[in-house]
Design a protein that fits this description.
41% helix, alpha/beta, D-Maltodextrin-Binding Protein, domain 2, 424 residues, 7-stranded mixed β-sheet, globular
């Protein structure tokens, strides 16, 4: 499995490119945009601390400046559960954006009737975004239908403030024993072992479950049958309590928010955090920050190199814009500009994997976490997508339950039961 995504994610290093990609130059579908003044709105999660936020803002500005008759209103912001819900509900109320960069996971199910499938777009514009790897496009299909144009992949991993370990004579957490044995020494030095945000515990949930069992367990879907829930899920969720009791988390962790947890790690108050490639640009001291796979639980009988990675987002065109002739041309031209090889190269410069052949910008040096993260995926024995991408509604029970397990306000069995009840 590592051979599949390693080739993709190693491209962050600009050593190799997607084998499935043809080296096609991004040419606009229509060289002449009709001289009709039109305003289009775009929404994306390229905002806030996202590593590609500045690059996307530059792409939007360049397109707006280059097209006299098109005005782009960009309402990008950082992703959250509330933001996801607001994007989907905007289609139902008719207040949606014309071009949306959004997830291609189960989160998108509520908006699929309001966006245009690629097959329909290509009937009118047969060369639409044809420089993007077909394998990448296929990987983000929803129920076998292609709607979105992906621009970069992601990986998730254990971010490590390496200097906090070295300065205190502590071994890096390369296996489970070193991972847990480090808690006492880190606490003694006044360092929080693991930064944790109770409102966004997603990444810890995924990695604890993956640490406790093989990929097949992580990829399972038990439906509504509690008896079919893998034991590794129960073990992984149980880590929130056992590791909290072992002082692996801050005492206030059950009530700490994600932004505070991020600051704890970035400001060297915490040794570890679990996040994704999009976070690389937020690291203020990349030279002393590395990324590694979450070590395997010592009783799991599995590889310590397994990781979570894949493609899970892309550009959609809203049907309301597609059926407006002036907006249709403008939206197609905008998506092509936003997915061009030059744009893709700028998005992945700070972390991630491109979906088309690109040339590295010699003036941009990838930060160490991005380089180490790509190498981590290249060394993986198994790769899986996030559990929550397959079962978003039910996964919300894990999200709300993690801190409750940690504090003792709920048991693992309680949370598992709620998950299965919602997993219909």
């Amino acid at each position: 499995m590592k051979k599949i995504l390693a080739a993709v994610l190693a491209m962050v290093l600009c050593v190799s490119l997607l084998a499935a990609c043809k080296d096609k130059k991004a040419e606009p579908v229509s060289s002449e945009v009709k001289p009709t003044e039109v305003t289009i709105k775009t929404v994306s999660m390229f905002g806030g601390a996202d590593a590609s936020a500045e690059a996307y803002a530059n792409v939007v500005k360049a397109f707006d400046d280059a097209n006299e008759y098109i005005t782009v209103v960009d309402e990008s912001t950082e992703s959250s559960e509330e933001w996801k819900a607001s994007v989907v509900s905007s289609f139902e109320t008719g207040d949606n954006a014309d071009v949306v960069f959004f997830f291609t996971t189960s989160d998108a199910e509520g908006m699929l009737d309001y966006v245009v499938p690629l097959s329909e777009i290509k009937e009118v514009y047969p060369d639409y975004c044809n420089w993007i790897s077909q394998s990448a496009i296929d990987s983000v299909a929803i129920d076998g239908v292609q709607y979105a144009i992906p621009v970069k992949g992601y990986w998730e991993g254990l971010f490590v403030n390496e200097d906090l370990y070295k300065n205190n004579g502590i071994d890096l957490p390369s296996d489970w024993a070193k991972f847990t044995d480090s808690f006492a020494k880190l606490n003694e030095a006044g360092i929080i072992p693991m930064a944790f945000g109770a409102d966004i515990p997603h990444y810890w949930i995924e990695h604890f479950i993956l640490a406790a069992g093989p990929k097949a367990d992580h990829a399972a879907n038990p439906g509504t049958d509690v008896s079919k829930v893998p034991e590794s899920w129960k073990t992984g969720l149980g880590f929130f309590k056992t590791l909290y009791d072992a002082k692996g988390f801050a005492e206030a962790a059950p009530s700490t928010d994600y932004n505070t947890a991020c600051e704890q790690f970035i400001n060297k108050k915490a040794a570890l955090s679990v996040d994704g490639s999009w976070w690389c640009g937020s690291i203020t001291d990349p030279a002393t920050t590395t990324v590694m796979a979450m070590p395997a639980y010592e009783g799991a009988n599995k590889s310590t190199t397994d990781v979570i990675a894949g493609f899970s987002s892309g550009f959609y065109i809203a049907r309301s814009a597609w059926e407006d002739e002036a907006k249709r041309d403008a939206c197609v031209a905008f998506v092509e500009a936003a997915t061009s090889p030059e744009a893709v190269a700028s998005y992945v410069a700070q972390g991630g994997a491109p979906t088309c052949a690109i040339k590295a910008d010699p003036n941009v040096e990838a930060p160490r976490p991005a380089v180490d993260g790509a190498a981590m995926v290249g060394a993986a024995d198994e790769v899986d997508i996030p559990l929550g991408d397959r079962m978003a509604t039910a996964y919300a029970e894990f999200i709300s339950g993690a801190a409750k397990i940690m504090s003792g306000d709920a048991t693992v069995d309680d949370v598992i039961a709620a998950f299965c009840e919602a997993n219909k």
